[in-house]
Amino acid sequence: MFTLWSLIEASLLCLNAVCILHEERFLNKVGWGATAQVQGFGEPPSTKSQMLNLIRSIRTVAKIPLIFLNIVAIIFKLLLG
After folding, report:
1. Exposed/middle/buried for 74, CB within 10 Å: 0-12, 13-18, 19+?
2. 23-26 long-range contacts, CB within 8 A, separation 24+
3. What angle do CA 60, 56, 37 make, to 5 degrees?
4. What are the DSSP E strand ranges found in the chain?
5. Which residue did the predictor score with more confidence, 74 or 42?
6. Amino acid 7: pLDDT
7. How many degrees, rounded to 5, is the angle at CA 60 between CA 52 and CA 3?
8. Which H or E element spans position 11?
């Protein structure tokens, strides 16, 4: 059964996955490392650089709130199954 809770849980798991991506171990192998952001002056950012900025932003901003959200999700699962 697909419910609102399963949607929230899936988004929480995806945010966790983005936060634990290691730039040197995983992203460099795929070609998405820190050196992949070569862009000329005045050029619009590419999709690749926008995705890298999104990943870095999520990693920077969402670490502390994700800890609390994970704790709430674990307690909710323990109490309600």
Report:
1. exposed
2. none
3. 150
4. none
5. 74
6. 92
7. 85
8. helix 4-19
Beta-carbon-side half-sphere exposure of residue 65 (alpha carbons within 13 Å):
7
Those residues whose C-beta lies under 8 Å from the C-beta of residue 46, and which sit 6 or more positions away, are: 39
**Which residue is associated with the tokens 């820190």?**
34
How far apart CA 13 and CA 64 sit, in angstroms, is 15
Residue 58 to residue 52: CA distance in whole angstroms? 10
pLDDT digits (tens, 9 = 90+) for 9-51: 999 999 999 888 877 777 777 777 666 555 667 778 778 778 8
Q: Regarding predicted confidence, which is higher, 41 or 73?
A: 73
State which amino acid sits at residue 59.
Answer: R
**Distance of alpha carbon 14 from alpha carbon 31, whole angstroms:** 21
